[in-house]
Every structure is written in structure tokens, then in C-alpha cells.
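Retry 2 of 3 after timeout on previous attempt. Resubmitting C-alpha cells to design endpoint.
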């Protein structure tokens, strides 16, 4: 499987209270990308967790699931200050893009009519594709909540977005079965996120986070 796995220390779009312990229990596994959300964690704990991930050689991702301009800009500044490698989520605002233009971080915002927690994406496929292509040249990539599409067409939507733009795409959320891993492999985005499925034991029911992550890595190697 070519797409990168981004492991998120989140459950139902909230960073888990024991994120540090969960990370340390699985940090030795062959996963490069690790991240969490700006919800459910304090600024001090955010600083400590990203530093811990970087000390283990991980590529770090902050996904922002608050959407007003002030919050998006505040989190962009925090992401730069703390040394995150990727800022994902947020909504696109010119002020955020301008602030990040000369910063050593990659910006992958949500696009389309996005709101809520858990995140919901509304609009037709054509409208969402148009929103994606409108961001070309303004961002480093896109964060697509395909399986949170209120229109109920996640696969068609993801295929359309990935085909329509040269920007790298992260498919975020709800990749919770081997079947969906196979679909993601067919679509071949830059990356996809996974968090709740690991905490909920979707790949090995009753097993812990680490064991489910191992099962996902084995499935990815097999696809």
C-alpha cells in the first residue's frame, strides 16, 4: 500500500487523555506520521507531546477542528512555535496562508462546507471538487473528510478530488476496516488518518491500541 498512514491519538475527534502513554507503547512500530487534534489537550501537554514524538524521529501532525479565523490563526502560530511538520484541518483563511507562507510547515486545510465535531462535510461532489481546485497554489495539500460527507458518497468524492488536483490529499477519518484500506489503496491519496478505529478495536476486537495498529500495518503490507 503506497499511501502513508497518519496515526492520530484521538477518539471521536478529541485527543485522548493518555495520549503520551499510548504513543510510548507503540513508538517502536514502523509508523512515521503521528498526530493529534487541538481539542482535548492543553497547550502545555501539546508542547510536551509533540516534543516527545520528535524525539522518537516522528513526523508530527496537528489537526485543528475549530473553525473560526481567530482559532485557526492561533493554532497555526502554535503549530509553528512547537515545530509541527504538518498543520491539517482548520478552514482556509488567507491570513493563515499568508502567515505560514515562509514557515517550515506544510498546510493541509479542510475545504468545502466543513463544520462540527465530529467533523461533517456538506455539498455536492462538484462543489467540493471546485473548492479543492480553488486552493491550488495557495496551500501545500488538502485534508478531505470523505467518509464524513453528508451526501453519503465518500468513495466517489475521494476519487473525484484526488483526480481533479495535483495537490497531495489526506483522507481523514473513518478508515475502519480492511475493505476501506483497500479502497484507499485504489484511490491512492498521499496519506490517510486513523485514530478512533484503533482505540475501538475495529481491526482486532477486544485488543488494545498497539495490537490493532500492528494489524493495520500487516494489512497495509498485504494490500
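Retry 2 succeeded. Sequence:
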Amino acid at each position: 500500500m503506497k499511501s502513508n498512514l497518519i496515526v492520530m491519538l484521538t477518539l471521536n475527534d478529541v485527543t485522548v487523555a493518555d495520549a503520551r502513554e499510548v504513543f510510548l507503547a507503540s513508538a517502536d512500530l514502523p509508523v512515521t506520521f503521528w498526530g493529534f487534534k487541538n481539542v482535548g489537550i492543553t497547550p502545555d501537554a501539546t508542547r510536551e507531546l509533540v516534543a516527545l514524538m520528535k524525539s522518537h524521529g516522528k513526523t508530527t501532525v496537528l489537526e485543528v477542528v475549530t473553525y473560526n479565523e481567530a482559532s485557526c490563526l492561533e493554532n497555526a502560530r502554535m503549530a509553528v512555535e512547537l515545530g509541527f511538520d504538518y498543520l491539517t484541518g482548520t478552514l482556509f483563511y488567507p491570513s493563515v496562508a499568508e502567515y505560514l507562507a515562509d514557515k517550515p510547515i506544510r498546510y493541509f486545510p479542510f475545504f468545502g462546507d466543513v463544520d462540527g465535531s465530529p467533523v461533517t462535510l456538506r455539498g455536492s461532489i462538484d462543489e467540493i471538487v471546485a473548492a479543492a481546485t480553488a486552493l491550488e497554489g495557495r496551500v501545500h495539500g488538502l485534508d478531505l473528510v470523505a467518509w464524513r460527507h453528508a451526501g453519503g458518497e465518500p468513495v466517489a468524492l475521494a476519487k473525484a478530488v484526488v483526480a481533479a488536483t495535483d495537490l497531495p490529499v489526506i483522507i481523514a477519518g473513518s478508515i475502519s476496516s480492511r475493505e476501506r484500506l483497500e479502497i484507499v489503496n485504489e484511490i491512492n491519496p498521499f496519506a490517510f488518518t486513523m485514530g478512533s478505529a484503533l482505540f475501538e478495536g475495529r481491526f482486532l476486537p477486544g485488543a488494545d491500541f498497539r495490537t490493532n495498529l500492528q494489524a493495520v500495518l500487516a494489512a497495509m503490507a498485504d494490500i
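Attempt log closed. The radius of gyration is 16 Å.
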